[in-house]
Amino acid sequence: MKFAYTSGSQPLAGYTIKRGVGVGGFGEVYFATSDAGKEVALKRVQRNLDVEVRGVTQCLNLKHSNLVALYDIKYDDLGEGWVVMEYVGGETLKEVLDRNPNGLPLDEVDAWFQAIAAGVDYLHDHGIVHRDLKPGNIFDDDGIVKIGDYGLSKFISCSRRSGQTESVGTFHYMAPEIGKGVYGKEIDVYALGIMLFELLTGRVPFEGESSQEIIMKHLTAEPDLRDLPQPYAEVIRRSLLKDPVKRYNNVSELLAGLKLQERDAAVTRSREAFVDASVTDAEQADKPPVTHYAPRRETIYITEENADSIVFGPVRESMAGPRSQSSQTASPTNPFGAVSVETLRQVSDVFPRPRVPASLKCVAVPLGMLLFVWMSQVLTPLGIMAGLAVLVCLGVRMLLLAVQKGGQGGVVSKRQLEQTAWESRARQQLASAHLSDRLSELTFSLLVGAGVAMGLASVTMLVIHGFGGVDEMANFTWFALSSVVAAWAVLLMSKFWEGGTGRQAVRRSTLAVTGVAVGLFAFASDQFLSVDFVRGPEVQQSILLQLYPSSLFGAEFHPNLSAYLFFFVGLLGLMRWWRQADPTRTSRLSLKCVFVATLWSLALPLPQPWGLMIAATTSTAVQLAAPWMRTEKRNEIREQMEVELV
What pLDDT, in 10s, does the model give residues 205-260? Predict the structure, then answer.
């Protein structure tokens, strides 16, 4: 990537750019000199200017020997903002740890950590949380330890709910409560505990092969402190408690736990004590100068395999006070969820999920529908029992989750932690799309949905009855129209929801109300077309009459208005249809979703196999018609984030 300004440029009065040194989340960073010869780092703010300037302004008057100094904010002739800050020419703590994979000697650990803690304590005393403490942000400036990248830290105030950017945390140093947008000073205490562990051992306490695995270890696992000496082990244990209320109240209390002698806040140390014995002075001289943004002169990018950051939701208030019980014991376990997740994980390890081509899936849907029709005598009773079992499990699960949610407090849910960074960014882009673009996309989806539903209905009719007579044509026309309207209802509501996550209860209720309208349409179509279910595929009257009151059905087992309303309210209101229309879903067409919809429809009061045919057709039409982000688009979003996450 080329920088906007080359060596010798003077976009800002009084400063001459020497070279570009990195690309940050808000813009480019340059090494420059003033007219008087002072070396500085210039950050060109290209995105979120107001938020960036506000964050830096809060830190301009901070003066501490263990903090990288922020000098000023200036504007060029084009109105672009520039942050003028101290240029640090030393190496980072990350580079020191890379040279010492087994950790540092205890005296060096004390020197590094006490200086870091002094700087963080100063930030907390002035109401600022760093939020991104890690070895890459700790620098050696001629023997003085300094903390950088705190200019984007968020101010602790009552107005933290407004005008804030989304935070960028680092997986290995990220406190569990960050996923819910809780940013108190407790998260810095947690990060200090992680870094102290890394200083002693050369590695972080929670490692994994994926970001999700690392995050889940932060949420559930305990650090292995058996090989660490005291009092370090006890300090780390308390700093890494899952409940932020039980951690150290402040950095001073944490330092007191280490039982170190009081030292000056600006801890200096001899550079030779930190240089590996195998590195000669000549080799040191050959190394290029290092800034607090980049260890090399080249532009820095975070590749997919090295990416260790995640974007979370808006900042919310810090912890409001202690809770009555620990987060680890406050909520019951969900037995259905635990068993199902563990079982699926074990099965997937033995039988990896195959990649099924989309064309094969499209063929499998009508074939599956026909199989149900031909074997309805056997499959319908079994399907009804399975559907009722699913309903019972769903009810128990909802009750358990409701109780669990009430006792969670500040603990991050698994669902929130497993949401990936690119999905969050993708939803931002979807929400910011122009209204005309969204309407055009919705119109196209409605047309495709209608075409898919009509096509499936036609194929089913031709296979079962050929061209048939007028009665068969009426039945299948009703089936196609009902499926089209049901798919349209889901696509329409999902379009309004695609830019966010939302509450499931609200979405289910909305779809249930929409199901009333769909049921009214289906009943009106039935009356207009004079549908005769007895002439259609074989029905299972006896089972439905045992499950539902006979008042739902008229003469010759014909469903009345109440049966239609019951069917479509249950079909649309009790399933998470918005997931099938989510542009960030993992695949264009999920056969599992089609199967679940079909299974659930068997327990609803509509003569079979008409009910399952409507459910399967609706699910297929929704998935094929709803927008879906292709792999190229997903990779593009990830690449954009990699450039920003420095």
Answer: 998 887 778 888 888 889 999 889 989 999 999 999 998 999 999 999 999 998 87
Give the separation between CA 454 and CA 476, rounded to whole angstroms.
Answer: 9
d(CA 185, CA 165): 18
Please check whether residue 460 is in contact with residue 366, taking contact to mean a CB–CB distance below 8 angstroms: yes
pLDDT-based confidence at residue 503 (cuts at 50, 70, 90): confident
Give the domain 15-86 fold. Answer: Phosphorylase Kinase; domain 1 (3.30.200)
**98 included as an active-site residue:** no
- Predicted confidence (pLDDT) per residue in 526-548, tens digit: 889 888 775 444 445 555 666 67
If residue 18 lies in a helix (H) or strand (E), which one and from where to where? strand 15-23
Looking at residue 275, its pLDDT comes to 42
Looking at the chain, the domain(s) classified CATH 1.10.510.10 span 93-296+303-320
Q: Are 125 and 250 in contact (CB under 8 A)?
A: no
- Three-class secondary structure of residue 77 per DSSP: coil
Which is catalytic among the residues 132, 141, 149, 582? 132
Distance CA 594, CA 575 (A): 11
Whether the Cβ atoms of residue 55 and residue 49 lie closer than 8 Å to each other: no
Residue 373 near residue 536 (C-beta atoms within 8 A): no
The β-bridge relationship of strands 27-34 and 39-45 is antiparallel
Where do the CATH 3.30.200.20 domains begin and end in the chain?
A: 15-86
Enclosing H/E stretch for 514: helix 504-529
* 519 three-state secondary structure: helix
Task: Render pLDDT for 367-419 as a digit per residue (tens, 0 to 9).
Answer: 665 555 555 555 555 555 565 566 666 666 666 655 554 444 444 444 444 44
440 and 495 Cβ atoms separated by less than 8 Å: no
Q: Say if residue 482's pLDDT is above 90.
A: yes
Taken as a whole, the chain contains a residue count of 646
Scan for tokens 């939302």, then name that residue. 502
Q: What is the mean pLDDT of residues 318-325?
A: 40
- The position carrying tokens 């009555």 is 324
Q: Which CATH architecture has domain 93-296+303-320?
A: Orthogonal Bundle (1.10)
What does the DSSP assignment read for 223-292?
---TTSPTTHHHHHHHHT-SSGGGS-SSHHHHHHHHTPPP--SS-B--GGGGS-TTS-HHHHHHSPP--S
What b-and-e string marks burial along 534-549, b requiring 16 or more CB atoms within 10 Å of the CB? eebbebbeebbeeebe
Q: Which residue has the tokens 């309004």?
A: 496
Is 380 strand, coil or helix? helix
